Amino acid sequence: MIPPFNIVLVNPEIPPNTGSIARLCGATDTILHLVKPLGFSTDDKQLKRAGLDYWQHVRIVYWESLDDFLAAQDEARLYFLTKKVSRLYTEISYQPGDFLVFGRETVGLPAEIVSLYADRCCAIPMSNPNIRSLNLAQAAAVVLYEALRQQR
What we know:
By secondary structure, the chain is α/β, with parallel strands linked by helices. It contains five helices and six strands. It has a single domain, classed as SPOUT methyltransferase, trefoil knot domain (Alpha/beta knot).
């Protein structure tokens, strides 16, 4: 059996984004990892609404901290998404079982993580300098579907 891809949300803040990503994970048999602290309760009405009635079809793993998550992973399977690097997400050769790691909506990944894992970081290009970032759920979908495309 081919291992699934993994989406990791580090300290997500906006319930509808996490709900939409959960729905994406359910649709693609991707495992969703949520790294605490979360900016909302998992009982949040908006979170549930964004995931619709698909929650029972989503595999979710909770981590107490980013350190706990990182300690449990093979570094070679981690890809960190950040706008602070020039390497594009399309330059990565993804393999089933890889982890696509996204930071908080307002600040992204911690600077020390981007620095420590600089060789594991990649970005989604944005041509308009007036736009600071993409919506987290859209970014997760773009990168996940590139990883899936490479497998088919």
